[in-house]
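Here is one record:
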Amino acid sequence: MKERAETKLKAAIYCRLSEEDRNKISETEDSSSIRNQRALLLQFASDQDWEVYGIYSDDDYTGADRERPAFKQLLEDAQNRRFDIVLCKTQSRFTRELELVEKYIHGYFPLWGIRFVSVVDHADTENRGNKKSRQINGLVNEWYLEDLSENIKSVLTDRRKKGYHIGSSALYGYRKDPQEKGHLLIDREAAEVVREVFLLYSKGYGKTAIARMLNERGIPNPTEYKRLHGLRSGEEKKPCGTLWKYYNISDMLENEMYIGNMVQGKYGSISYKTKKNRPRPREQWYRVEGTHEPIIERELWERVQSLKKKRAKPFADGRVGVFTGKARCMYCGYSMRSSKSHGKHYLQCPIRYTAKDACIGSFISAEKLEMAVLNELNALCERFLEHDLRSKNQVFDIGNEHYLEEMTKREKEACEKRIKEYTTAMSQLYLDKTKGILLETDYLSFYRTFLEKRSREERRVHELEIKNKSDCVIREEAEKMEESVYLRHLDREMTEQLIEFIRIGKKNPETKELPIEIYWKF
């Protein structure tokens, strides 16, 4: 302790500015620039006689972004105990997520011996009395994030419906109009390549042949073209593969953007807390006709679409794309595509035929792959059914089981409804306090009561989920396998349910062995 008192405490200063902050006017808000935040915190550290270890700054990052580079470096240095204090202007500058407040400010920081201090809202982990205030701040910031996300989503949806382009970069063949936000102009250089692709296909060239021709001439693919012309941003500026591939041509030939129609919303975010997206159904896309100058004339477009339909390659028995997206080349990792020769269907690596020496290429008949999958699947089923579970006669009462499932479901729904009610009540309490309807002491008392009740309901929901999984997992796995025992054919639904992906190699000319690795979902 004496040694600690003799040396100055080291403070790490963290500043953050997001895009929405730039639009604020009042200097009293959290919109102060990075420079102003830095000056305020340096002065505060000086007044406290703290030594500044370093300044960590994230510009143009939201408080919900967990991948902020300076933020991640700050946490790494905190874990390594390179300083004693994390100093911010407000708690929201550090994070707007309640989960991260609990995880770091109230969790890891105390374990690492790190003190958290924010100047404006007087958060200080050395003062145990204001922990609840920090939690309330975290909750309010969480609500702010959710409301902000909904507001932004509403604005973007409205602009998409009106035909304005929303996106960090334009589709290959176009560029953003510098004079009119949301409008696209033709990029003459890239547009010539787009026209050539459509013309070649209309003249009978296949997608693989077109990709090979472009690669042989050294024409960069769309992603590389954008990088070379400075049209990509952030981490995407790093070099990537330059080769054209089968799917580049396929996607281009079916994109209505090239005939002047704005088509957006093909993917949607999972949650405001993550940047991950998932595909949306076609009927939920935003499609507006005639929003920009077309690259492809309508006559050529119709001719290409007609040819694409004629060249579709369904399996002989009508089972289209059983292994689509599942079969991958063992050497380059790309998804294999189907082909047909002499009445038989095959899967082959697309890279092998679009560029010389890019990959040695994997190849297998669809029939042989199906038999390999069926043989391994049936063998797994037999071993599973011989498991101790069967020998112990663990038979499920289906009628009673369904009744219990329904009761558990109803109780879970009731708990979730009460959780929502308590959350709404807590939000209303805060509004009443800010309006002066409630005193601070009454607010904290009521808030604590609702928080305890909500936590109790959340624990019960968690218990019900664990119980449901525990009761049903054995039966579900058994039923899943029983349905697959001694299968004679596969369909798309089966491969989607059971298979993560399949890695396929090339037949060894000496041993005649063809390597196949199946990665199951169970």
The CA atoms of residues 346 and 366 lie 5 Å apart. The chain has a mean pLDDT of 78. The two ends are 55 Å apart (CA to CA).
